[in-house]
Design goal:
By secondary structure, the chain is mainly alpha-helical. It has one domain. It has five helices and no strands. It starts with a helix and ends in a 9-residue tail after the last helix.
Length: 147
Amino acid sequence: MKTRDTLLLATRLFLGILFLYASVDKILHPAAFSETVMNYRMLPEPLVNVFALWLPVAEFIVGILLVAGIWSKAMSRIVFAMLCMFLIAIVQSVARGIDTHCGCFTQGGEGTPISYLTVLRDVAFLAVSGLSLWIETERPTWRLFRA
């Protein structure tokens, strides 16, 4: 196995497990996650519950597909987009001085309060995702017919 393939597998498994782990508590506690989403003050109130219900399911499905290696290029793009969305939410919360917890992995008051360390952690996750996406898009694809 080449180094690129090993690195791709490692990043794909890391991100897949990360997304699976992040989704579980949100799925088990939808009301608490809805409150967390509301605390970010980014979505209109009528959309908060819909978003809070579909996001954890999307995270779970993406995590499963990444771990399984199914549609990995598409999943890498989706993970990168989702991590960008999460980073924007956290940065705007820090910038606006919103006093809330992250809601990334646990729901309720026991979660990690948002801080610059949360931003750094999410930048690191985004970097891993960017690396995975770069490796995925740089991999040669097999074509039946060459032009």
